[in-house]
């Protein structure tokens, strides 16, 4: 059995008129890829494109290699920084003991033995690239010094380091510990 066809009244009306889309010359140029009509020109353009991509990738790889080498060098150079930072308080206490032995007698065996150990520690730190931050008599530098107090002084200029209370250290060009210092200041005029 065949199904009856729908009556013309139930069918939707379809508009079969042609649809026109207005385009501008710029839109037409954007739709069509810019390809040379000559196959030789097309091949040369493709070769130039691949060459450019190869140069860019080679440069990127070269930059990556240099960056990786620099990071590896920094890692080697500063790998011991945490160990050295942990060593500094021990060195501070050792130097206090050395000073106490010096006050007692510079000719005692304890003082001489401790002096030799101090030289060995100093040589070891120097071999590792550690340098003491120069502070005494220098102008105060907040990047290298940590001011713990200020004292009035008539003999040195304001802002000059009078005393070092704790030594500071640098590893190559990187600060490991700032020097704790006392800075010269001027007297506050009384009102």
Give an account of the 3D structure.
By secondary structure, the protein is an alpha+beta fold. Among the domains are: 38-77; 131-191, Nucleotide Exchange Factor Grpe, Chain A, domain 2. It is 47% helix and 16% strand. The protein has 4 helices and 6 strands. It has helices at 25-31, 39-77, 81-104, 109-127, and strands at residues 130-132, 145-152, 161-166, 169-171, 174-177, 179-185. Strands 1-4-5 form a 3-stranded antiparallel β-sheet. Strands 2-6-3 form a 3-stranded mixed β-sheet, with no helix packed on it. The longest helix is centred in the N-terminal third of the chain and has 39 residues, at 39-77. The chain is elongated and about 95 Å long. The relative contact order is 0.09.
